[in-house]
Amino acid sequence: MNTKNSGLILLQTLIMVLILAMISIMTLKWGLGRYLITTRVSKSINCKALADACLAQKIALWGGTAPSNGTYWCGIETANDVEVTVSGSQITFEVDDADCTYN
Questions:
Q1: Which of 22, 35, 39, 72 would disulfide-bridge 84, Cβ 3.0–4.6 Å?
Q2: How many distinct helices (H) and strands (E) make up the chain?
Q3: Model confidence over 37-58: pLDDT tens digits?
Q4: Can you tell me the distance from the alpha carbon of 48 to that of 92, in angstroms, rounded to the nearest whole number?
């Protein structure tokens, strides 16, 4: 076999391997990116639902007026605790074990 042709065959094989590897990496990044976005959105929706439920509970207990400054807890039975902080006219809800805070 001619050494010139074998060098071209090796070069072509190397280029094809690199192209296929790049396509595989892009496909994996696309798939994992979709998974991460879905997880983040799901966690955000869960946190928002807990904060809304806590707000409804506190409005019912407080009779429409917020108490003085302080920190309170919601009595919602879930795996995550919801902490309510009242500072002036601002009420902040923080859900434990999650990355979300709602004002």
A1: 72
A2: 1, 4
A3: 888 888 778 777 777 777 777 7
A4: 12
Q: How many residues does the chain have?
A: 103
According to the model, what pLDDT value does residue 2 have?
61
74-100 pLDDT tens trace: 766 555 666 777 776 677 777 665 555
Could you give phi then psi for residue 70, rounded to 5 degrees?
160, 180
Domain ranges of the chain: 3-102
Residue 55 CA neighbour count, 13 Å, CB half: 14
The label of the residue with tokens 């042709």 reads: 5
